[in-house]
Amino acid sequence: MSEHAPVGGKLLTKPFLFFAVLFMIALAFLATRFIFGLGSVTNLNDGYPWGIWIVIDVMVGTALGCAGYSVALLVYILNKGEYHPLVRSAVLAGLFGYGLAGLAVMIDLGRYWQFYTLLWPGFIQVNSVMLEVAWCVMAYIAVLFVEFAPVLLERFGFKNLQQKLSKVMFLIIAVGILLPTMHQSSLGTMAVVAGYQISDLWQTQLLPPLFLISAILMGYAIVPFESMLASMGLRRPMETDLLAKLSGVTLAVTVFYLVLRFGDLLWRGALGLAFAGNLDALMFWIENLLFVVPILLLAKRSNRNHPRLMFLSAVSLLLAGSIYRINTYIVGYHPFAGGDWHYFPSVGEMMVTVGIFSFEVMLYLLAVKTLPVLHRA
Amino acid sequence: MALNRRDFLKLSAAGVGGALCTGNAQAVQREPKQLPPEAVGMLYDSTLCIGCKACMAACKAANGMPPEQTGEADIMWDTPIELSGKTLNVIKVYRDETVPVSEQASLVKDQEKNGYAFMKRHCLHCVDPSCVSACPVSAMTKDPLTGIVEHHKERCIGCRYCVYGCPFGVPKYEYNEAFGQIQKCQFCAHLQAKGELPACCDVCPTGATLFGKVTDLQAEAERRLAIQPGESYVFPRGKLGGDRPPHEAKIPKYRKELYGDKELGGTQILYLAGVPFDKLGLPTNVPDYGYPTLTEGIQHMLYKWMIAPAVLLGGLAYVVHRNTQKSHESERQSDSDTSSEGGES
Questions:
Q1: Using CA atoms, how far apart are residues A128 and A119, in angstroms rounded to an integer?
Q2: Chain A: residue nearest B168 by CA?
């Protein structure tokens, strides 16, 4: 009946248990954080109030979750129906990416028990970029649930409900495209208020479009990345033809991104900082060379059918977008007033981040084995 | 397909394209905020400060802040070296690092080379504060009359965006508390409500920390800058225009500028000094508008009355509807089985 099917197979496999152990370690660090405060686990300090729990778990995490958004743009707006088999797993990646980012926010909030004030009409501050991001992300998690609902309804046989939902699904999908457009760009806008504290290599009013486009790219990259791992780990055939076409789209968007990025740097006269020979400059080149790698790999049309090259360019893009976010918010951030501050994440901080991503993998394995997510083999 | 692409381009023009226009030379800006009508502030004259730190002790007492031990473990008294979750006000010192420690007795006060100078750090109560603009839950507010920037912990979610955004590195979070809060100078709003002076201005023996209306303090600073160094001047104490006995001293060699007059849109705490302000930890490579004018400029352009998002949503819904209809029809033609038609299938 459906073109999708559960993969099936044993749940408690060795990889699953491995990720479960990593998740347990994270839980131990989290217990410490909640009993003794953020300082007991993290290296956050009076100069660097934001660390990897915000920048990796939330900013990178939601950008990785843009798979659903990016593929929806292709399928429903550009009307590239042929990419349709990728939608379900992309929406699932989105659901986990965003859901866990929401969880990570609660871990990092210093006064998490007052989270409700974000929804309190008398308290909300509508000029705040963070308020917009918070609302958009909350709404988008709900939208992703609804977008994923057909999978559950199909699995548990609620055909009637599934057909009713399909009638309004176009609206849900439209909202599901609008919301990430808003908050992924606003995650860039959020850095603008830091002003001079962020190096001119990253500080610009073009942060919103740059964050948006790089998030779309990460969304496209996560699709072949996930598909490739699924084909290796779950021994499934690859959707090579489809992924090859997607690579063409990725290539075009990457070129556009780099033109905008370097055009902005030249226009602001900030490119000189890239030759300053310091950590900022080094990280700037690592970030942007990782954006160039997929262009080199995918420029030749015949390369786009090559699974290994496709995988490499996807990994390169995921790293590039991630490092762009880390550079903007942490590496390029130089608090001037009050002292000589430094930040590098502690082991506990890193283990919590690893644990959250491990949890994401566990949920993914659970979902594809028991629910009709992946395209029928 | 061509038609669809055209639709997409139209949508892009409303969304991403609109954002691209922000590249136009920081042109996307909202109007800068103006000094509130009854703005109160402080003039800190670094040349008058003797580094006695009476203001630090008074601040801790007035705000119930705990002592803070730094450095050697056997130091038993309050020794903060920077603002923190325990310290809202701190006196710091600049000294010429090129002079070896053994010759520091020869350092001259308020001079950059072979010299040293004091600096008082706390909230500057910006005219256009980044923290107020950043805070999602109005836990940072600016009083519309007095202009005091106040933190309300009962609303705060602890996201620390105010800490991240503050150009002066002022708000601090209590990282070593299970239920920590943001701490920052509230300009002793609780004392001012009773008609008293902020504790630091009240206790300062030299008038280095002077309370007053911001416009009056600006005029006072301009008077000091206009007089020749070495000439005699009567320095007020406590409150400008108050009834405390002033003291007479010679006008020092000021840097001929008043910090806070225009930096980042202006601040209600103003600084006079004999050494460059960046040596005292004040950022000087800053525009004369506040950064919130840039972020709110972007936000207001994209989200004013939510018109642009509503238009974009309408366009998206139309295109998605048409495209899914089409694929539904073609599926119906090619395949009689409709059971797989979730909206997203």
A1: 13
A2: A337
Q: Could you tell me which residues are beta bridge partners of residue B141?
A: B150
Among B135, B178, B182, the residue with its CB nearest the CB of A125 is: B135
pLDDT in tens, A278-331: 999 999 999 999 999 999 999 888 888 888 888 999 999 999 999 999 999 999
Compute the distance between CA of residue A108 and CA of residue B106 in angstroms, rounded to an integer: 49
Please give the angle made by the CA atoms of B259, A191 and A346, to the nearest 5 degrees: 105
Q: Count how many Cα atoms sit within 13 Å of the Cα of residue A174 in the half-sphere of its side chain.
A: 22
Q: B306-345 pLDDT, tens per residue?
A: 899 999 999 999 999 998 876 666 555 554 443 444 444 3
Q: How far is A13 from chain B (nearest CA, A)?
A: 30
Are the beta carbons of A91 and B324 separated by less than 8 Å? no
User: Which of B316, B322, B325, B332 should we substitute to test contact with A (largest number of A Cβ atoms within 10 Å)?
Assistant: B316
Question: What are the φ and ψ backbone dihedral angles of A276, each rounded to 5 degrees?
Answer: -80, -10
Contact at CB, B167 and A197, closer than 8 angstroms: yes
Q: Do A336 and B283 touch (CB under 8 A)?
A: yes
pLDDT recorded at residue A189:
96
Q: Distance (Å, rounded) from C-alpha B324 to C-alpha B314? A: 15
pLDDT at site B198? 98
What pLDDT was estimated at residue B12? Answer: 46
> How far apart (Å, rounded) are the C-alpha atoms in residues A221 and A236?
19
Q: Which ranges of B88-150 would DSSP assign to H, the alpha helix?
A: 130-134
Q: Which residues of A touch B334 (CB under 8 A)?
A: none
CA A309-A310-A314 angle, 5° bins: 115
pLDDT digits (tens, 9 = 90+) for B113-124: 999 999 999 999
Residues of B in contact with A50 (CB under 8 A): 160, 164
φ and ψ of B211, to 5 deg: -90, 155
Give the bridge partners for B259, in sequence order: B271
Strand ranges (DSSP E) for chain B? 40-45, 90-95, 108-109, 115-121, 140-142, 149-151, 172-173, 182-183, 209-213, 232-235, 247-250, 269-272
pTM of the model: 0.91
Contacts of A120 in chain B (CB under 8 A): 137
C-alpha to C-alpha distances, B137 to A42, A115, A254, B323, nearest whole angstrom: 25, 9, 37, 40
Give the model confidence (pLDDT) of B120-161 as tens digits: 999 999 999 999 999 999 999 999 999 999 999 999 999 999
Which of A44, A170, A182 should we substitute to test contact with B (largest number of B Cβ atoms within 10 Å)? A170
User: In chain A, which residues have pLDDT < 70?
Assistant: 1-2, 377
